[in-house]
Amino acid sequence: MTDSVIFNLMPDFIRARIAAYTLRDWVAEHYAVPALQLDRAMTLTLVQLEHAASRKTFYGYDVSTAPVSLLEPISRYMDALLRGVSPEEDRESFPKDLVRTHQRVIHEFETLNRLGNKAR
Q1: Are strands 61-62 and 57-58 parallel, antiparallel or unpaired?
Q2: Which of 73, 85, 86, 87 has the most CB atoms in a 10 Å sphere around its CB?
Q3: Do 71 and 53 form a contact (C-beta atoms < 8 A)?
Q4: How many CB atoms lie within 10 A of CB 31?
């Protein structure tokens, strides 16, 4: 994985990140579930994002009626991340390279975010 791969994934990740946290709020409101029951730490896991993109479920809840503006960015990021990876039915695990790439994207985003906050 090169820095250019991470750089190219970053815009899609940022949009997917915003959409995923908003989708989490949508699930809490739509299903009258206390948001605290939907672990924030799980929001950006590959399994959650993949389920939102391919199965239209999030935290196990049906999100097929959620606004497209929440589902599309997640699907776009997963498509970009999975490009070149063979599809698997009922994927519950991902190749280690893919997991590392996703973790590095998150790490780079958080680093940039911290640097941006320090500059203020």
Answers
A1: antiparallel
A2: 73
A3: yes
A4: 14
Segments of 1-120 assigned E as strands:
57-58, 61-62
The string of pLDDT tens digits covering residues 49-60 is 999 999 999 999
**CB 23, CB 52: distance < 8 Å:** yes
- For residues 81 and 98, the answer to whether their CB atoms sit within 8 Å is yes
- C-beta atoms surrounding 81 within 10 Å: 23
- Write out pLDDT tens, residues 88-109: 644 557 889 899 999 999 999 9
In the structure encoding, which two tokens stand for residue 112, read together? 């940039």
Q: What are the tokens at 53?
A: 């993109």
pTM, two decimals, is 0.87
